[in-house]
Amino acid sequence: MASITRNISVGTRRWAPRLVASALAGMIAAVPMAWVMRGLNRVLPVRKTSWLTRLFSLPPKQVTKRISRRAGVPWVTKPGRRWDSATWLAHLGYGAAAASLYPVVTRPLPVPNIVRGMLFAIAVWAGSYLGWLPATNIMKPATRESARRNIVMIVSHLVWGALIGLLATNFSRRMSGPDGIHHNE
User: How many CA atoms lie within 13 A of 177 on its CB side?
Assistant: First the structure.
């Protein structure tokens, strides 16, 4: 029993910094991701839609609005605001939660961290926009969206993933203790 407890303790000390570091990296990376998303959404050509309509129609805003309605709190996404507090909190929170899986999912990949992060981001995009969002009727699947919308979302996810790849390992090394428990991936 003592050896099991010790193994759990060592495993926790090994993985806890990685999970926390990745969550922090995902939350931080969600900010430039949103900027890229908004910027691309403004500049990519589109047919007969105002830039204001395009801003309001970005997926983080749509998802937050639809989930808040289902939860019975539609007032958290007040009409007329582009990126309100609820949208930012949801976007940062989802970025952190999803990124916390990064070290577990990508550890066996023998590629540089930035590439690992970008591959992870594409998996998150696919799992969200081809998976749980359409399965829960929150959004239509990416296969039914315009190529323009998919470009905006995939490029912004690639930025998010690249930053996770760069930040998570650095944060994890800084968080690990001097006892040498944390091993480079």
Answer: 8
